[in-house]
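For the sake of clarity, the format in which proteins appear in this thesis is described at this point. Each number in the token line that follows is a code from a learned vocabulary of backbone shapes. One such record is shown here in full, so that the layout can be seen directly:
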Amino acid sequence: MTAPLNPPPPPHERSAQGSWQPPAAGPEAHGAHGFQAPGSHHAEYAGHGWYEQDGPGLQAEVREAAVVAVAVALGGVLLGVLWWWLAPHVPLVGDVAEGNWAVYLKETEGEQAVGVDGTFTLLGLGFGVVSALVVFLLRRRGGVPLVVGLAVGGLLGSLLAWRTGVWLGPAGDVVAQAREVGRGVTFSAPLRMGAKGALLAWPLAALVLHLGLTALFGPRDPEPEFSDGPYQAPPVA
């Protein structure tokens, strides 16, 4: 027998010839219909780094969250004014015993103190609903930084409202007020918050409502698109 004219290549050359080559970048890589292959991830270069095509970069989201936090927190001034205006006044009365002034509640069974905390809680819930609705309408796309900024802004706004209401309310020195108005004369107690949990009404309401609106009416992720051609199994070697 005669030797074959084209002998098979050595093993190292045969492995190189039979190795898989990645597809070339171009229109062919997306198929005949221009669809992107499943599992592939497209990103575009913008500025100082790679950003996702379906949303802003992390730095942009953090900046938006900071702006939201500051804007929401400034609303605490209005909440403090409304709390000072709408909260019930706690009546006090002063008396002199052995030359020393003492201040007592005029109505020992009154519920004005509870009403002060309740007014702040209701106002906080209302401000939380309004702030969450405004943020969602201005920026429908959610995101962790935006939600965190909204919650932080609500908490800072509650603290600012608390201090604003106390500052606008009656002075904290009740003994001096009792001496000023006279013995047995009724005057209003300082605006105080007995239940500090009321400070969480604004951020919790804003957080829950914004997450609910995003889940119900936020943008949906696009479903993957596939080519119309039938699936063909690769040939068996």
In short: Residues 89-217 form one domain. The CA atoms of residues 42 and 205 lie 37 Å apart.
